[in-house]
Each structure stands twice: as C-alpha cells, then as structure tokens.
Amino acid sequence: MTLRTAGIHHITAFVRDAQATVDFYAGVLGLRLVKKTVNFDAPEVYHLYFGNETGSPGTIMTFFPWPASRRGRIGAGQVGVTTYAVPAGTLDFWKGRLAKFGIAVSEHVRFSETYIRFRDPDGLELEIVAREGGPASRWSFGGVPAEKAIKGFGGAVLYSAAPEHTGLVLERVMGLERTGSEGSVVRFRAEGQLGNLIDLDTSVTSFGAGGAGTVHHIAWRAKDDAEQLLWRRRVEQAGFHPTPVTDRQYFNAVYFREQGGILFEISTDPPGFARDEEPDRLGEKLMLPAWYEPYRAQIEKGLPPFELRALKEDKG
Predict the structure, then answer these.
(1) Which of 137, 174, 244, 278 registers the highest number of CB atoms within 10 A of its CB?
(2) What domain range includes position 52?
(3) Could you give the number of structural domains in the chain?
(4) What is the DSSP string of the chain?
(5) What is the pTM of this model?
C-alpha cells in the first residue's frame, strides 16, 4: 500500500486572548467556531477550533488562548505562514475587507499566484490566495457571504532548521510530490483538494521561539484509524520516534518532530466534530471529554468568558 497524505488536517497555534481570537477568525475572516473545548493536557486553557460549516479536515485552525503566554518568535522549526484559499475572483473582496478592519496587508507573488499576507492580533502570519480548486464553504458570518468565504487551507509555508531533511520527510515519509522551486522556496503537492500545496522556504535560518503568535504543530491527514497505524509504523521505520496514538475526541493523533524542528502530527479524518453536538449547534457549548466532566463547574469558572459576535464594522 502506498501511503500519501491528502494534505493538512489542521494547524494549531498559541494566542493570548480568547475574545480577540474569536473576533478575528470568526468576526473578520468569517470562519465557523466549530468546537469550544479545553486543552486536554491543560484544562485551564481553551482549545478553540475554526473551520468551514462542519470543520472538515483541511479547513481546521485551532488555538490555545493562554493569557499568560509569552510572545513567541516566528522562525526555523515552525510553520511560518498559514495559507487560506478563497474562491477565484474574490481576492479584491478580501483586500477590501481587511482594509475595513484596519489590517495591514502586503502582496506577494509565488509560483505565479498572488497572495495577500497579514497578521492576526498576536502576530501570527497568515495569507490568502484565490484558487479554483477545492470544495466551497457553505458558511456565512458577519460580512462574509458563503460565495466569498474561505474554503479552507491553501497550504502552508514551512520554516525549517534543516530544509533538505524536511523536504525528504515531506516526499519520502508523507508522500508529497516535489513540483518545483522558485528562489529559496521549494513546493510540494499532496493529493487532496485543500491544504495540499506546501512551500518550504529554505532561506530562514534563525530559530523561532514558541509562544503567542506562533504555530505549535501542523497535522497531516490519515483516512482512518487503520491507516494511521500504518503511518505510525512508517514514521518509526524512517527513524523517528512517534508518540502512541492519542485520543483527541474528534480525531486520533500521533506526533513526531522531524529533523528541521517542526512538530508534525498525523490525524484521522473521523470521527469529526458532530460526534457530541448537532451539526447546526456546533461550537455553542463548552464540550469536555468524559474524564473532565466531574470538574465542569471548576473548569468553567476558571475560563474567561467570550461571545461569538458580528463586529461593529459589519453592522454599519
């Protein structure tokens, strides 16, 4: 069996403020808050998931909002830039929308595609590219209609401390195809329609430091539990030290760190976010795994409140 990941499952980052994060990713970018839970390893911290209408693999950006977090530094050993894909012909809409919220953007051309790059409130680097491929989102919120909504990930730009090694892992372990290079950037393609174009920037040499405004890990897709076990064996045979399979409620996860310092995860597509909430009620309630339910009152008391809201710029 030839193992080839379909692409990015999710990307997880550190931020400081839950309300500011919800306002930006839902209020400005129009993504759906599909799950409100806690960091299973530190239940005093939220774990918030944003994606398309169902939180499909390839659309999910997740956050640990920790008010006491130090400010991170983007650099080698991290995902440097997270790329979102929007429908073809909508880039001007997104330029105008970001301008309406006073968000500074810069324009870049890479592999003949135009990207608009900007930062979230904690300094996380994001970019938007307009593309034909990939299923459209059916979610609309605030001032973002469904026909112009973010479809999901276009991909990501990786900053590696050992780019040659990282490139080999992408090709020989994860099954991506190297499709070309431009300047210092090498492009790889996965099989899926979203989260499938990965750019490896070989020019970044200074190491990053984890903290607010940085990506913690990038997760790759496995079709199911059986395939994930094959992935785990493959990673181990490649000389890495993958973790045991970890139950994350909405997917199962295996982690390993590649030679360039980037933390990789391999996540199962199922069971998804509707396992404990109705599809039309996703993200409305704090969902806890069974082992934390006896402590719900204590956990809820320690978490800062926030609300999902349309922003004033969209109400005028």
Answers:
(1) 137
(2) 8-314
(3) 1
(4) ------SEEEEEEEES-HHHHHIIIIIIT--EEEEEEEETTEEEEEEEEEESSS--TTSEEEEEE-TTPPB-B--BTEEEEEEEEEETT-HHHHHHHHHHTT---EEEEETTEEEEEEE-TT--EEEEEEES-SPPP---BTTB-GGGS--EEEEEEEE-SSHHHHHHIIIIIS-PEEEEEETTEEEEE-SSSSS-EEEEETT--SBPB-SBTEEEEEEEEESSHHHHHHHHHHHHHTT--PPPPEE-SSSEEEEEE-TTSPEEEEEES-S-GGGSS-GGGTTSSB---GGGGGGHHHHHHHSPP------GGGT-
(5) 0.97
